[in-house]
Amino acid sequence: MPSTPVINLRKGHAVRYNNEVCLVSAFELKTPPRMASYVQMSIRTLSTGKVYNLRMTSNESLESVNLERNPHEFSYKDGDGYHFMHPETFEDVILSENAVGDSKDYLIEGQKYTVQFADGLAIGIELPASVVMQVTEAPEGVKGDSANNVYKAATLETGLVVQVPLFIGPGDKISVKTEDNSYLGRSN
Is residue 116 a contact partner of residue 21, using CB atoms and an 8 Å limit? Predict the structure, then answer.
């Protein structure tokens, strides 16, 4: 496998470290005055979920792992994990709780997601920039609070709690930014 200089890595890239496939979860290039630049990054092993915090000089390299990305439809969750089905081959792919991580808050049955594969094994999912979800619980807005941009907590169909404007109620469909769980607007 080819080596990649650590300075070219970014969040979401796959590398091999200690003979394990790992995903870069945090990356920062630091250039202190009168010193050589270095890379501070965190990588998470896919098999165990163990996190390594690495500090490497900008000219060091790690072995890169080729990632494949294929669309799959989320089917259901059970004791084995999260089940995704390939839309053409109908092959069932199971991802563990560890592999799915915080993305579980955005998984809606029947929706398509991008499943990542490394060395032929399913390792995780990529979420779209935003997801449309239905509000299941939202308290009534307090009359007179509409003069300011006042928000309230609303629970969505997956259990995710998002801050929404006062006019949003149960049954409304809203668009949520997956990067930071923020409300983007109403949806049809």
Answer: no
For strands 51-57 and 61-64, give the pairing: unpaired
Candidates 22, 19, 38; CA nearest to 30 is 38
Among candidate residues 84, 88, 66, the one with its CA nearest the CA of residue 75: 84
Q: How far apart are CA 79 and CA 90, in angstroms?
A: 20
Q: Where in the sequence is the domain holding 135, given as residue range(s)?
A: 130-187
> Whole-angstrom Cα distance, residue 112 to residue 130?
13
CATH number at residue 148: 2.40.50.140
Tens digits of residue pLDDT in 40-74? 999 988 777 789 999 999 889 999 888 888 999 99
**Rounded to an integer, what distance in angstroms lies between the CA atom of residue 80 and that of residue 118?**
20
